[in-house]
């Protein structure tokens, strides 16, 4: 892969990575907003479905067999599976399965968790079960825009897009190293950090003493089109990196090039022979 190909690939993967990263962030934001908009202990469900549920306990029973439920509809019921400690504060939680029979009509139903030995003693916040008529109605009332308009879980969208985000970042890093190596062979390097404002900037770039760069050396400064726009005087040099002061009347940005070629003439702003130096 030559320099032109590497630059094109990096540009394309960078755009794709930015798009996937935006999808990831929007999906996470949508999921969080939807979660906070949902009332506590309210469970949307379709008739004929089951749903894992849990809730805090005011008192800790010996086991799940000591719990019972009271439902406002015969076909809406709870099956208790275990008593466990909460993840954050260690308080007792019940865990179980909510079941809505297929014959239950759409509507809102209440379910109470009570002590089996003492009927009427409510041990947990009341559960509100909202049964919808069909999947379309379920989606229409979803707090998540991804579910409502795309029928996709925002959390699954975020999970599936995360490997693409990481892969694009790794690919860009590898391509950048490849480009840096090809540029270094020609005595050039991309500027990756810029501080300051015209006419003087502090810049950092990937040429160092192993490339023949020494403190006090003066290099040519090229913009992204390969036009000579100023000079860079090296202030510090490590084996593979250097920091210098750039003098230019145009705003220097990351991606500009420094060039150690002796063929560059100072002040040559539009010298056509410089156009090839960026490639």
How are the SSEs ordered, and which strands pair?
Blueprint: H1 3-37, E1 42-46, E2 50-56, E3 67-71, E4 76-85, E5 92-100, E6 107-115, E7 127-132, H2 135-140, H3 145-150, H4 154-185, E8 188-197, E9 200-205, E10 218-222, E11 228-237, E12 242-248, E13 257-259
Parallel strand pairs: 1-7
Antiparallel strand pairs: 2-5, 3-6, 4-5, 6-7, 8-9, 8-13, 9-12, 10-11, 10-13, 11-12
Helix pairs in contact: 1-4
Strand order of the largest sheet: 8-9-12-11-10-13
Structural class: alpha+beta
Distance between the termini: 13 Å
Question: Low-confidence parts, pLDDT < 50 over ≥5 residues?
Answer: 262-279
Give the overall shape.
elongated
Q: Nearest-angstrom radius of gyration?
A: 32 Å
Mean pLDDT, all residues: 87
CATH architect. name of the largest domain: Sandwich
Sheet with the most strands, sense and barrel status: 6 strands, antiparallel, barrel
Which percent range fits the helix content?
25-40%
CATH domain class name of the largest domain:
Mainly Beta
How many helices? The count is 4
What letter string, H or E per element, gives the SSE order?
HEEEEEEEHHHEEEEEE
Strand-residue proportion = 25-35%
As for the CATH topology of the largest domain, it is Immunoglobulin-like
Give a count of the beta strands, DSSP E runs of length 2 or more: 13
How many domains, in number, for the residues? Answer: 3
Provide structural commentary.
The protein has 279 residues and is of the alpha+beta class. The protein has 3 domains: 1-38 and 143-175; 41-133, Sandwich (Immunoglobulin-like), CATH 2.60.40; 186-278, Beta Barrel (Elongation Factor Tu (Ef-tu), domain 3), CATH 2.40.30. It is built from 4 helices and 13 strands. The protein has helices spanning 3-37, 135-140, 145-150, 154-185, and strands spanning 42-46, 50-56, 67-71, 76-85, 92-100, 107-115, 127-132, 188-197, 200-205, 218-222, 228-237, 242-248, 257-259. The strands form 3 sheets. It has a 6-stranded antiparallel β-barrel with strand order 8-9-12-11-10-13. Strand 10 and strand 11 (228-237) form a beta hairpin. Helix 1 packs antiparallel against helix 4 (154-185). The two termini are 13 Å apart. Residues 262-279 have low confidence and may be disordered.
